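Now for a chain:

_____
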Amino acid sequence: MSRRAATLSAASVLVLLLAVIGSFMRVPYVALMPGPTSNTLGTNDKGQPLIRIEGRKTYPDQGHLNFTTVTYRGGPGGRIDLFTALRGWLDGDTAIVPEETIFPKNESPKQVDQENTRAMQDSQQNAEAAALHQLGIPLTTRVVVDGVQKGRPADGILRPGDEITALDGAKVTSVSQVTGAMAKRKIGDTVTLDYRRGGTEQKAKVTTVADPSGKRAVVGIVLSDQYKFPFKIDISIGDIGGPSAGLMFSLAIYDKLTPGPLTQGKFIAGTGTITPEGHVGPIGGIQQKMIAARKAGATVFLTPKDNCTDAVAARPDGLRLVRADTLNGTIQAINALNTGNGHIPACK
C-alpha cells in the first residue's frame, strides 16, 4: 500500500470513528429552529376561529396578522448529540444555545412547560386588555391567587384560582390594595379574607407570619391582577407556550372590533410581548421567527424595538422590518403602510 493510500485509509477510519463518537456524545445545548406561524385572523388546527368574540359587534377582516414561534430540540432527558450541534452551528436557520438558556438549572422541564403555559395565558389576557384600552372600553380588575406557599398559614385553606374579594371587610380589586393593607398588619395578626371559589363566597381567618426578611407580615399567597372583560374573548391556539404572541393577539382583537380590515389584505407577521397598557416588549428567537414568517409568505414583520439590532443583522430577503414600540404606534404604522402616508418606524 502506498503512503498516500495508507494516509487516506487512516483518515477515513478517523472520520468514521469521530462520526460514531459524535452520534453518541450528548451535549448540553439546545437547537432553536423556525416554528409554526399562525394567522390570528384565521382558524386553528380544528377549523375554529383562532380568536372568537361574543357579546360585542365584530367586523369582517382580511389578510394576515401572523404570530410566530420557535421550536427546539434537546434539553434535559433528551440532549442533542455533538453532530446535531455542529450541523446547527453551520445552518443559518438554526441557533445552538446553552441548555440553561431554555431550561434553568434549578427548574425541571415540567416546571418550564408550566411557566410557558402560564406566560401564554398571561399574554392573552394582556393582549385583550391592551386592545380594549386602545378602543377606550372600560375594564375592571380582580385579585386572583396564583400560588400558595407550602407550610405557610394559607396552605390548605386557599387554592390557586381563588378570587380575593375583601380583606378584613374592605373590598379589594387590585393586588396593590391587598399589599397596601397587609403592610399595615403586624406579624401575628389575624386577617379575614373573603374569597370566591367556583362561584361560592367564602371566608377564611389566617394568622400572619414573618416573611423571609423577618420584617413583613404575610400569609403565604402569591397574587395577580386579572381583568374582568365586558364581553367574551376566546383565543384558541393549542399547545403553544410563552408570552411573545401578545402584540399579534392585541392587533387581531382590535381589528375584529373596528370597521374595515386593518391589514388591507397584506401579509403581516410579527412578535412581541404586550402589557395591558399597550407597551411592546422584546422576545427571544427573533432570527428563527423572521425565517418562519418569510417562508409563510409575510412581507412585513413587526419587531420589538429591543430586538431591532439582531433582526436587522439576520433579516431575510423580501421582509420589511417595522419597529413596534406600542400597540397604538403599531396600528398607526400599519395604517401608514396601507395609505403610503405617515411615519413608518423602521429597525436600524
Observations:
- The chain is about 30% helix and 30% strand.
- The CA atoms of residues 30 and 97 lie 5 Å apart.
- The mean pLDDT is 89.
